[in-house]
Amino acid sequence: MAETTLTDTRPARRPMAGRVRAAMILFAIFAALPPVAAAIDDPFLVLIGTRILAYAIAALALDLILGYGAMVSFGHAAYLGFGTYAVAVLSSYGINDIFLQVAAAMIVSALFALVTGAISLRTTGVYFIMITLAFGQMAYFFFVSLSAYGGDDGYGLRQRSTVLGSDMLENDFTLYYATLVVLIGLFWLCHRIVGSRFGRVLTGIRENRVRMEAIGYAPFRYQLTAFVISGCLTSVAGVFLANQAEFVSPAFVSWHRSGELIVMVVLGGIGTLTGAIGGAVAVLLLEEVLGSLTEHWKLWFGLFLVLMVLYSPHGITGVFKKLGLGGTKQ
């Protein structure tokens, strides 16, 4: 019996272990970027890198519900907005500590996700997509209406957040590594969530909702909990985006931004966590490279996405799998 159990559990663990190794390689590459930027005297790489890391956090959070819960949220950029404006609003009142700003962003995001998720999850399929889009647009126009913070024109931050009174984040390299540490921590958290009983139930609901209900689970509660967790984690990305840009704007909350997050997850590989991070890297690097070559870069970017969907439905993760460098989808 013990031998049978060992044989049965090994296949399930291999994909997760493979993805953790892939994530460790990505994190090592991220850690090496600032020294490389310093060596070639190009500090712009660090700024771009910080932006990529922040969006990687948002994509990771979205993959938690899209990849493991089959919830296609088209309004997830709203939580980016809560994060960015938490920095702007609190700093205008002299509250610059990043821990307080993150706490405020997560509390507001949790409340918003709890209410909107409870309503949205009563629908499925395209109706869920449309209702999350509607809530996202409501958040967008709310931020546009904040005339005290620039309205549609946005609002420039006077300074970056502080850490227990220290202004260490004013240094671009420190901000970069702080964002990387948070990304690694949240990846570990999401990895633990999807590997836990909660994560297995969430995956079961994705695969066969009726069967999970038949054996006594309540899909609504599990999906709503995951929805709230994802919203809170996305707001953390917003806090770091505001510090990287030193500027906040309703543009962070538009439905286009929500679409970009979905593209990152799909391009990287849905339901892999590591793929979400790789997708964020790929999308933002393609934007930078293609944008520097032609003003019609979106045309070529769209063509690239079409080719990826046709020839690698599992995204970048699928490409590595075909090359024998990745695990299978959980």
UniProtKB/TrEMBL annotation:
Bilayer-spanning residue ranges: 48-70, 77-95, 101-119, 126-149, 175-194, 215-241, 261-285, 297-316
Annotated InterPro entries: ABC_transp_permease, LivM-like
Pfam families per UniProt: BPD_transp_2
UniProt-annotated location(s): Cell membrane
Origin: domain of life: Bacteria
Protein name from the UniProt record: Amino acid/amide ABC transporter membrane protein 2, HAAT family
MF GO annotations: branched-chain amino acid transmembrane transporter activity
Membrane topology qualifier: Multi-pass membrane protein
GO cellular component: plasma membrane
The UniProt record lists the keyword Membrane: yes
Annotated keywords: Cell membrane, Membrane, Transmembrane, Transmembrane helix
